[in-house]
Amino acid sequence: MATSSIGRDTPRVDGPLKVSGKAQYASDFHFPGMLYAVPVAATIANGRVTAIDAALAIRMPGVRAVFHRANVGKIFRSTFGPGFQGVTDERRPPFEDDVVRYYGQYVALAVADTFEAAKAAADAVRVTYAREEPNVATELAADDEADVVTTSFGPRDRRQSQRGDADAAFAAAPVKLDQVYVTPAETHNPIELHTTTAVWEGSTLTLYEGSQAVFNHRGVLAQMFGLPVENVRVVTRFLGSGFGGKLWPWTHSSLAAAAARQLGRPVQLVVSRKMMFQTVGHRARTQQRVRLGATAEGKLLSLQHDYVYHRSMLDAHHEDCGEATSFQYSVPNLRVTFGRAKRHVGSACDMRGPGAVPGLYATEAAMNELAAQLRIDPLRLRVMNEPKIDEGLGIPFSSRHQLECFELGAQKFGWSRRTPGVGSMTRDGLTLGWGMAGAAWIAARFPAEASVQLHDDGSARVACGTQDIGTGMYTILAQLASEKTGVPLGKVEVALGDTSLPAGPISGGSMATGSVVPAVFAAGDEAIGALLGVATASPGSPFEGRRLEDLAFADGRVFVKADGAAGGVPFADVLRRANLRMVRGHGKSEATFDDPKPRFSTHSFGCHFVQPGGERHGRGPHHQSARRAEPDRGRGRDGDRHGAAGAHLVRSRDRRADQQQSGRLRGGGERGRAADRGAFPRLPRQGDQRARGPGDRRDRAGRHRRRHHRRGASRDGRARAGAAGEDRAAARVT
Amino acid sequence: MRFLAGGTTLLDLMKLNVETPARLVDINRLPFAKVEATPDGGLRIGATVRNSDLAYHPTVRRDYLVLSEAILAGASAQLRNMATTAGNLLQRTRCMYFRDTAMPCNKREPGSGCPAITGSNRTLAVLGTSESCIATNPSDMNVALAALEATVHVQGTKGTRAVPIGEFHLLPGQTPERETVLEPGDLVTHVTLPPPVAGSKQLYLKLRDRASYEFALAAAAVVLTVASGRVTRARVALGGVGTKPWRSPEAEAALVGQPAEAASFRRAAEAALRDARPQSENAFKIELAKRCLAHALHTATQS
Questions:
Q1: Residue A650: closest CA among A615, A621, A622
Q2: Is residue A154 over pLDDT 90?
Q3: Per-residue pLDDT at A547 exceeds 50
């Protein structure tokens, strides 16, 4: 048996293409006569366009057209389809009306022979507005809406989950926590700018896109141009990542297609870096009230999670902060509700662990604050409230290794050496704070189809219309095909990112790989079945006349089961003798995502252990670093964007790196580990002295090296730990 | 007309239509790319010396460490490889209203108004502001040059002149569009530094929202001489808080003759920020700048 590449370090099969610049991203496609489009963005957040003066722009050299509402031609709306066929967060087609509902909304489009001419023309378009006061208030209160509301994914009940009597149990609870947690709007801005290159041939449209979901993109754009889906092809050979921002089509895609239609020429539209903060989605701002009721010992009695997020004036992306709330802890009384608040902002979308990430931030922070209130270890609080089943759905977990995950994380971090008093842990002049949290993320599969071909030169081809968002799908598909067919990695051709291929899953939700594995294996099996059929049926074949069930295939060779693999024949020989270029198999796997009646609750689980450190200032009592100095932190618009003031002083550092640096936190590991394995009891402050920094003199160079290090790239400061199998750290999604 | 050196500010602003020069004159082939000793023992830095080359120059590393630290605290390696001495001197503000032509801005369009005063001003200045403009000078290098008492040398249509760094940048007053004393046709040819102060302790400390590739919320450049536990000479400049690189004679006066200890440093910091005026979102910068300066003085004197 040849060595499998699965589970081994394997160079990316697409690496040479990327480092040599041959990998074609959406803006790398060029066609004869192609024109360049640059949008004109609204400079108000609310109001109407009263006039668009393009007279100057259109006279500029190389300018072909300035499109706006009056001349862009018909662009239809799209609606939901089955599965991922009609999902989009900004449903309004560009230029549909003269209303501006967010800053940066496209109001016109300049098209020219060169990008530079188009940019200059866009800048020369004069737009006049009737401006109205926008509502961009950051304080969120739920709009008055029905219980069941329509979202980008269809109807959702705002009473998301309920059991027992959460209000009564909270009122009666001996220990109560009632807090509001806010997460700011966050924008994803991957290296590759959003791009559409649109090419019409008669009534067929090909879009070279940066898309995490080419089939959904096809479904939406076909609707918007009134075309049968087979007339639309969407190609995404390479993605400079997307983080969820490239899951569903944005308005620039239909604009590029409309301009190409009107001018009869291919059109390329690259969204600028600045526009990417406005027109291609963001994570909605959230405001989450969490109420916990508990016994004096820490057993949860009631959990209420009521969250509100902002949305654009027309759209309905659902930021599901309550995704993990109903099952993460055992609690008899629970209520999760959500509300939405319309604001004059662009549409929100799925960003990097949508919903669960801000949601778990709130509920896990609440657990930590409850632990502080109860004066018990936050890890112990979680262990005490570990559920046996998914209490939200009343069904068992497929597996849940949250406790092992905590234990492993605690061991690796040395959690038992934590002392709870604020400011009680110090090192190198830093005051340390140790904290932890649990995490969960859905584990499911999307439907997937794939094909595998075996060729008469011993090579293979695997094809699946999924995308490689940068996480390695090219390599994964090659590995799967190689594993199944015995063809070495270097002889496996991979085709993906094209709606002309078998329908593949979206690149989102951390589900693409899991979705394609069974489809590729099934396709491989079918190809091998076809090969064995050829082997028995072809005149001159060494296996002519054999019964199918007598033959087997392993490691690229066909052989008689009874004789063993050693007597086999390479599959290429079988094909050549039959004068066949190839055999092909097709495979399909079914979705487990959105199963209305699941038998098991299927999630992955994780944990975070973090060590932020802050410097003491002057003498006197310890200042809580610079955060205290800024009253508006997290409230103002700007506060959102920039986070904590003096974040340089409030550093997160990777503890393991610290250990390597100072060696001071080492030791006591065995004792800590043994202790961690139990009920995570707290040890006395034995780590404190050890944690103190070396107070010795240092030479000047050493000082500067150290300082330089502190100023260097900030680290995430997380020790992630995942238990075996699927229970990997969760929140890495889109 | 604009002179083009590294282009890291100018081209950026041209793409935003903030700078719209009818003509660019590339000065990269002028003989301004050298760092040389001056006869008096100081240093002469050519206008087109790249920031990286200057920061890693052995003489700068040895004698003017605060300048090296300041430059390396700014921008990114790629930008520093292009950015020049003169370009950095003329670096323009990061005020978002200045950089967005859809917004009014007295600096960009005199008389159009300053939306920053009632708007988003968290990163803007608390020292040297006026009713017309509260934009921060974003440079790190300039702060070190101020503490080192550099001199800017200018070639104009009527000859050459030398301008002390403290007089080179202008306060906004009612004319925020005028940022320096340069007149049309003036070209910065080089910058000179006085001879290094023997035994001085130098430090640049920069505080910001993230640890790299970010502008200062507050920064301090200090050049101190300490003898027998007392400060005998002090040069202090602040960054990130002023409308120009902010030399603080108040802080210097508060330090000289005082013991090199925390109480003195705090008093100096209080003195440096005494005239600070907060805006709606940036009051935190006043305390942050004080701590920044006190911490810089403390750290510098610990060596």
A1: A615
A2: no
A3: yes
Beta carbons of A712 and B212 less than 8 Å apart = yes
- Which of A345-349, A419-423, A533-537, B3-7 is the least confident region? A419-423
The token pair at B213 is 């590739």
Is A128 in CB contact (< 8 Å) with chain B? no
**Measuring CA to CA, how many Å separate B156 from each of B32, B46, B92, B150, B162?**
16, 16, 21, 19, 11
The verdict on A619 touching B (C-beta cutoff 8 Å) is: yes
- Across A409-413, A416-420, A656-660, least confident range: A656-660
Q: Which of B73, B212, B294 sits opposite A713 (nearest CB)?
A: B212
Q: Which of B71, B73, B77 is nearest to B57 (CA)?
A: B71
Strand locations in B2-149 (E): 2-4, 24-26, 35-37, 43-46
Q: Give the tokens for residue A347.
A: 């549409």
CB nearest to A618's CB, from B283, B294, B302:
B294
CB contact under 8 A, A711 and B73: yes
Most distant CA pair in chain B, distance: 59
Distinct helix (H) and strand (E) counts, chain B: 11, 11
Taking CB atoms within 8 Å and a gap of at least 24, the contacts of A693-697 are A693/A426, A693/A427, A693/A428, A693/A429, A693/A430, A693/A662, A693/A664, A694/A428, A694/A662, A694/A664
Assess contact for B105 and B112: CB atoms under 8 A. Answer: yes
Using alpha carbons only, give the angle A282, A288, A291 rounded to the nearest 5 degrees: 160
Question: What integer best gives the mean pLDDT of chain A?
Answer: 85
Structure tokens belonging to residue A416: 């038992």
Torsions phi, psi of A701, nearest 5?
-60, -40
Report yes or no for ipTM above 0.90: no
* Residue closest to A549 by CA, chosen among A529, A579, A569, A573: A529
Q: What percent of chain A has pLDDT over 70?
A: 84
Residue A158 one-letter amino acid? R
B303 vs A contacts (CB less than 8 Å)? 700, 703
Query: DSSP of A199-222, one letter per residue?
Result: EEETTEEEEEE--S-HHHHHHHHH
Structure confidence by residue, pLDDT tens digits, B199-255: 999 999 999 999 889 999 999 999 999 999 999 999 999 999 999 999 999 999 999
So what's the pLDDT on residue B255? 98
Whole-model pTM: value is 0.84
User: Which of B121, B281, B282 is the best residue to mutate to test the A interface, defined by the most A CB atoms within 10 Å of its own CB?
Assistant: B281
Gap from B40 CA to chain A (nearest CA, Å): 27
**CB A703 to CB B303 under 8 A?**
yes
Decide if A703 and B217 are in contact by the 8 Å CB cutoff.
no
